[in-house]
Amino acid sequence: MKKINWKDVEEAKEFEKLPAGGYICGITAVEDVPEKEYLRIEYDIAEGEFKNHWRDLYTNHGFWGGNFIKSYKEKAMPFFKGFLTAIENSNPGFSADDFDNNENELKRKWIGLVIGLEEYKANDGKIKTRTYVDSVRSVESIKNGDFEVPEFKKYLEETKVNDSGFMPVESNDDLPF
To answer: What are phi and psi of 7, to 5 degrees?
Structure first.
């Protein structure tokens, strides 16, 4: 092991997890992933008790968890337009109809996000909790409480299929056909 002066190393601090709820956020970075037709959007909390939550987490633990994707595939275009409209309604001077498909125009814009919590199975097999962006709203909608906090999503074990590709029916009841 290399020599380390442990007196100079600060112990990891506990961090408060972001609770589910509505947040006023700022878009900090946007990356286009053209081969998959989506934008990877990084954000941070811009106001309130959890202001700079992701920046602080990154500073203390080297992890930036504030991100989500927005697809612009043909089937997802109405949802992407809703995202642009939420940005328009939160940022005077920005027009969803005039957006010229330059993802860099979205950086440093305000947005309202509804954050949910869900369980997932980590690589080590343990069930852990993470945040996810449930919906995108205008900043005004968040300020007015015009959103629903999603219910906590419990992890469900994947259902096994048999060799035929079908799930086995575990019932002694007569089938209706």
So the answer is: -65, -25
In which order are the strands placed within the sheet that holds 110-121? 67-71, 38-45, 21-33, 110-121, 127-137
Question: Does the pTM exceed 0.85?
Answer: no
Q: What is the C-alpha to C-alpha distance for residues 22 and 137, in angstroms, rounded to an integer?
A: 9
Q: By the 8 A CB rule, do 151 and 134 touch?
A: no
Map tokens 């906090």 to a residue.
Answer: 149
Task: List, for residues 127-149, the tens digit of each pLDDT value.
Answer: 999 999 999 999 999 999 999 99
Q: What are phi and psi for residue 117, nearest 5 degrees?
A: -120, 140
**How many angstroms separate the CA atoms of 97 and 14, rounded?**
44
* Residue burial 92-101, b: 16+ Cβ < 10 Å; e: rest: eebeeeebee
State the Cα–Cα distance between residues 89 and 176, nearest whole angstrom.
52
